Amino acid sequence: MIHCSDKCRHRGSLKKNGCKITCCVCEFICEIDGCEIEGGCDAIAVAKDTILIIEAKGGRLRREDAKDAVRQLLVCLEKYRLDTLRDVEVIPVVMYKSRVESYARTYLYKGPHELKRKGLKPILHRCGDDLSRIIL
Length: 136
What we know:
Trna Endonuclease, Chain: A, domain 1; globular
């Protein structure tokens, strides 16, 4: 489904941008930005029939950060051709450490942005919380 080199493959958790990415039910978490490729999303978590495209933002999430997160998620979506996969649910996730400004939340949920046009709605998720809640 997704090729991930051994040096970029993590079991259970990964720390990126001061944000702990954890997924207990995932087969693996692949570190993308700075490991597999330069740029793009921070990680891709692979579960049985679900793929989470993850962008982690340390600190407060502003509207500019939300726009940047959408751009980075799109890089991974297109690079790994995740929008062409059948029988797999692809979920974009923006992780944040402290606060989410209302303009950022509105932008992610209502758009306009390319993820929304592709039928994908980003989910906001706090750093350190297990991503398994999204999948189960």
